[in-house]
């Protein structure tokens, strides 16, 4: 099992990429993130803070600057005027813009229609976010695992390659394929075929909706 990222790992990666620069804002962003995510847990049972720390570690290893690392730590802060205003006051407008930019990008799901015009740093945050989510995907329901994996291969792997993040793209592709080719996928195929055949008995407008819901369950 991959060891969980820690703030020390984030700071070490950042220092390697940006020697001599002050990491204090990153420490403060971690403290602010801990305040926002206090009492929240992921499906794995781990504190929610482990997710933004992992995202921050990824972008730091890829050489992202301090603002991007801070935005990674704060990327799941609610994108409300109050929250973003606090982020802007504490860490600057650029950090707040990165957090809100990621939120706007996610509003275009599942096609990420804004991906072609979004700033590169926002796309980097999106890819790092999805990478950690794929690494911990086993804790989600099977239907969601498959949907996330299919979306990753169709949209995010090509995006990583377009940005020149080939190693990141390869890991995204491998993690997604592990799910799509795994035992869970093969167990679902007979059931999917049976349910697809069954929905022909339904009225036309209802077929697609019920097929998607039944197969998802």
Protein architecture, described:
This protein has 217 residues and is an all-alpha fold. Helix content is 70%, strand content 0%. The chain contains 11 helices and no strands. It has helices at residues 7-17, 24-37, 50-61, 66-73, 81-91, 93-106, 120-135, 142-162, 166-180, 183-198, 204-216.
Unreliable stretches (pLDDT < 50, length at least 5) are 184-193, 195-200, 207-217
Report the order of strands and helices: HHHHHHHHHHH
Largest sheet: none
Give the overall form.
globular
Overall strand count:
0
Helix content class? 55-70%
> What is the CA-atom radius of gyration, in angstroms?
19 Å
Instruction: Return the average pLDDT rounded to an integer.
Output: 85
First-residue to last-residue Cα separation: 28 Å
Structural class determined from secondary elements: mainly alpha
- Binned strand content: under 5%
Number of helices: 11
Task: Give the secondary structure arrangement, pairings included.
Layout: H1 7-17, H2 24-37, H3 50-61, H4 66-73, H5 81-91, H6 93-106, H7 120-135, H8 142-162, H9 166-180, H10 183-198, H11 204-216
Features:
217 residues, mainly alpha, 11 helices
């Amino acid at each position: 099992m991959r060891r969980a990222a820690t703030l020390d790992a984030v700071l070490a990666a950042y220092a390697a990429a940006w020697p001599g620069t002050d990491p204090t804002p990153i420490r403060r962003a971690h403290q602010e993130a801990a305040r926002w995510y206090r009492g929240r847990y992921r499906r794995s049972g781990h504190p929610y803070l482990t997710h933004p720390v992992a995202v921050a570690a990824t972008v730091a290893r890829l050489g992202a600057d301090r603002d991007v690392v801070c935005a990674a730590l704060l990327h799941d802060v609610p994108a409300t005027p109050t929250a973003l205003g606090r982020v802007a006051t504490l860490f600057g407008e650029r950090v707040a813009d990165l957090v809100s930019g990621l939120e706007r990008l996610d509003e275009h799901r599942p096609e990420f229609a804004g991906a072609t015009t979004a700033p590169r740093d926002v796309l980097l945050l999106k890819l790092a976010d999805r990478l950690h989510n794929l690494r911990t995907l086993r804790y989600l329901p099977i239907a969601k695992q498959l949907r996330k994996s299919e979306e990753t291969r169709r949209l995010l792997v090509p995006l990583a390659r377009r940005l020149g993040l080939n190693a990141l793209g390869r890991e995204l592709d491998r993690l997604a394929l592990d799910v799509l080719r795994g035992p869970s996928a093969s167990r679902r195929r007979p059931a999917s075929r049976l349910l697809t055949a069954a929905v022909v008995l339904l009225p036309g407008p209802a077929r697609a909706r019920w097929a998607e819901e039944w197969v998802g369950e």
